[in-house]
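Table S2 (text version). Query chain:
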Amino acid sequence: MEVLAFLVELERVLGEGRRVPFTGKVMVDEEEAMALLADVKSHLPDDLRQAQRMVVEKERLLQEARQEAERLVEEGRKRAVALLEESSLVAQAQSQAQDVVERARQVAREIRAGALEYAGKVLGDAAAALQAALDTLNKGRDELKASK
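Corresponding structure-token output:
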């Protein structure tokens, strides 16, 4: 993640700056600091696009889970019809069909829950990384403003 590398470099520049006595402020090479901030800004859209891709991936996983659930439910219905047609034991066929449908629904719930959990974790991680980058960027900007 290039943004983090630029932010680490900006931290280094700020850390190596000369301290102004009795002020708690640091003097840094303005051009170098501004260039690093420009690099961060130019690379942030990549991180944002990555977060967007994660959202799209979450939607794709949810859609797949829905389709799988529908397929399993339909499979259960077809099996139920076939059992009814082939068997003189209608009650047994209905029970087995209900079991298949319930298993399909359970699998669909598990798939959906897993997809939501995964998507939530990925988006949370992306949000935390972006927030950390933004916090560091704002801190660097504030320190630059304070050092003028």
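Notes on Table S2: The longest strand covers residues 18-20. Residues 90-147 form the longest helix (58 residues).
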